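This part of the workshop introduces the protein records we will be handling. Getting from the letters to the tokens is the skill we practise here. An example says more than a description, so a record of this kind follows:
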Amino acid sequence: MGTEKGFKVPHKHSSIPIFFIKFPIRNLFLFTVICFALLVAPMVWAGGVIQLPQTGQTKCYDTAGAELASCAGTGQDGEVQAGAAWHLVF
């Protein structure tokens, strides 16, 4: 078998051509760094950017579905009202 530019070239009468690429360790490391930079890093850097809107919930309910007089200490949306404010444009 002949070798051309890092590839093992099968004999021209071979029924199944299989190519093997020789990667030096530094090329594999560089490939890994590039994959990380293009695929993983943007997801990490974008973390926490999205702000979900508020639910608009102002009341709280018990486990039976009855409305509570006060939301204090329940941790429900009616008490916390977390999220970004809605910007309605008419």
Summary: The chain has two domains: 2-45, 53-81. The CA atoms of residues 29 and 37 lie 12 Å apart.
